């Protein structure tokens, strides 16, 4: 039965992608889907029933957005099956510790988020939702035809029943654990010879280096970046090593949110989610996404504010899709750098993309980097460059570029401290731009 659901969703997704000619048509259809979701959810979720109060279902956009902390605090009342939060966490942590990711609660898949923000979360996916997700991701991410042979290698911190739900004769999945050193994966990866390679950018970078050295002999037809922000520096290097454009899947605990089209543009999956925009700047270029996923009923996601900073693409994509196109996923709100204003009154925010561009513009010899804001007055910069490059020259350039950006934003100039570059381990997410202090009124 599940394979039939997957196939039905695959063809439905393919058909829907060509259905709408205008945004207005898409948005009217989305509204009908949200109303359908609410008819299912409200009688079964005490949390959302109380949250709506006297609001009518068609007034759902008036709901105050929720966040990860509130969702986890209210988990037992929010999900529609009455699954207890402690039970779900127990199952998820057991799978994490044993590295056996098959356990579930009944027929419900339980997953654990990576917790980059320090607040780990759990998610529930029922069997119908699992089949729907599999059909959607195959339709959007799989190159060629469904009946072609596909071998998908995915490097993740944790496996899940969700990922292996489509493991069939012509579509084979192989999980590679990020907690295991890369050298132990190479032989199996060469034998498996994936047609599709899925991994975080930090791992794709290591695989690209192994490819250049000759210890990795695979030639995938598609390379997909997941789980971390894809830095332009890494994107170019990975693309050159594999001679493939690097595609992206934007997915988190809260849903399958976006995927690149054949032209490399990241489009929001507006056939399964509504994405509202909470703008962060006067130019209305950057925003927090507020999502409502009308494909999920077990753990409903209704007006959920993500902590990610997104920017919308200004020019139309050649593919002609009416789905929202994203220019970049800049990073998390927690990684916006904060400096004291020149006059000392208040904070000056500098978005991660400005920091990223400043470092990359400093020198063509930079291979990898990390910038961490330790305090309002201190930045720690780690850089890996060509061995023959002049350290004094690129350090001066980086300092000059970073100071220029802070000065343009009206902030007090920080000290720039350079430290040796160290790669993060497979169990941690790579954040090339990271703020590690929490502002307080006393600072």
Automatic annotation (TrEMBL):
Transmembrane segments annotated in the record for this chain: none
Region forming the signal peptide: none
Superkingdom field: Bacteria
NCBIfam families hit by this protein: aden_form_hyp
PANTHER family tied to this protein: CAPSULAR POLYSACCHARIDE BIOSYNTHESIS PROTEIN
Protein name from the UniProt record: Adenylate cyclase
Organism: Brevibacillus brevis
